[in-house]
Specification:
Rossmann fold, disordered N terminus
Length: about 325
């Protein structure tokens, strides 16, 4: 989820610029969070009490509902954290052992000087689940977390019993020039440079299609945590995570996946396909992924955007529940 400072250089840039300008004027009257005190990683709201585990010398923050039910593991996307699953964790904790982590570099987890590419994240998740004594689980990943989940299933297939991909990264192919442009744009200070008005525009036009109390809280957290000293390392993690996804594509490996898979996209996703380089429709990208993964199921949720599980939680939860009932 590339939402810290998004370029508007798309084919209809004049229309997009005019829309953004209008929104900036409207948003000038809305709450201003940058004037509030900074918050730290431990101040972010989480659906369950946070626990910590040492994994490979890294401090991993996570939540665990406990219980005897089958394990569901939620992996967040780029620039986010486990609070983005606020509409899923309590809902599924009634019948499952639900776990979610803050990936290293994000949320309340440690911020190491690391590569932050999908294979590295996948190894961390594998060791974390091993430390919890969970031999296999249904793994649900959003955006970058979807690419990490696919990488986990390819590198550690025994750990992934079922795979659920919420608007996943990894179904698009970028040429060398496109990848180079993204790396050069996403410098290690880029996330630190995002202004509150830019973030609000990006949240409301790119990341979410439904601005509610939950998304407003997530925006406030994003603005205020940027003022905390720890966020400098998160900005580095964002830059390296983007480079890592580009350097470790999974598209050509998808036919090797041997796990029941559900793919969920919103029909009005404004981030996939990439608006600068890919074009086309979200449905076309989604179908490419479905056709590449043997036996995969695809659900398109009308009107939902890139954070489909937050835009349409009831529909997303129904799709996931139906998948869990059908595939045992």
């Amino acid at each position: 989820m590339w939402f810290d400072h998004v370029t508007w250089s798309i084919s209809d840039s004049a229309v997009a610029a005019a829309r953004a300008s209008l929104l900036l004027g409207v948003f000038a009257c809305l709450p201003r969070y940058s004037s509030l005190p900074a918050i730290g990683p431990d101040d972010i709201l989480t659906p369950l009490p946070v626990q910590h585990m040492d994994v490979r010398g890294l401090d991993i923050a996570y939540v665990d509902s406990g219980g005897e039910g089958p394990a569901l593991v939620f992996i967040h996307g780029l620039s986010s954290y486990m609070g983005f699953w606020e509409y899923q964790i309590p809902y599924f904790a009634k019948d499952f052992r639900v776990l979610a982590l803050d990936l290293p570099g994000y949320g309340a987890s440690g911020r190491p000087d690391a590569s932050y590419h999908p294979p590295w994240f996948a190894d961390v998740v594998d060791d974390w689940l091993g430390g919890l004594g969970i031999p296999s689980a249904t793994v649900i990943g959003h955006s970058m977390g979807g690419q990490i989940a696919m990488t986990l299933a390819l590198a550690h297939p025994a750990r992934v019993a079922r795979l659920v991909l919420s608007a996943p990264a990894g179904f698009e192919r970028f040429g060398p020039g496109e990848a180079r442009w993204m790396r050069e744009f996403w410098t290690e200070t880029r996330a630190l440079e995002a202004r509150e008005d830019e973030l609000r525009v990006t949240f409301s036009t790119m990341v979410f299609n439904r601005m509610d109390q939950g998304t407003e809280r997530l925006l406030e957290e994003r603005v205020r945590i940027q003022q905390h000293a720890a966020f400098a390392a998160t900005s580095v993690a964002v830059s390296r995570s983007i480079a890592g996804m580009l350097d470790h594509p999974v598209l050509d490996q998808l036919p090797e996946l041997d796990v029941p898979t559900l793919i969920v996209f919103g029909t009005d996703d404004h981030m996939i396909p990439n608006p600068v380089f890919t074009g086309g429709t979200t449905l076309r990208v989604a179908e490419r992924g479905r056709d590449a993964i043997p036996g995969a199921n695809l659900v398109m949720i009308p009107g939902a955007g890139h954070t489909v599980h937050h835009d349409a939680p009831d529909q997303f939860n129904d799709a996931l529940s139906n998948f869990l009932r059908m595939v045992r």
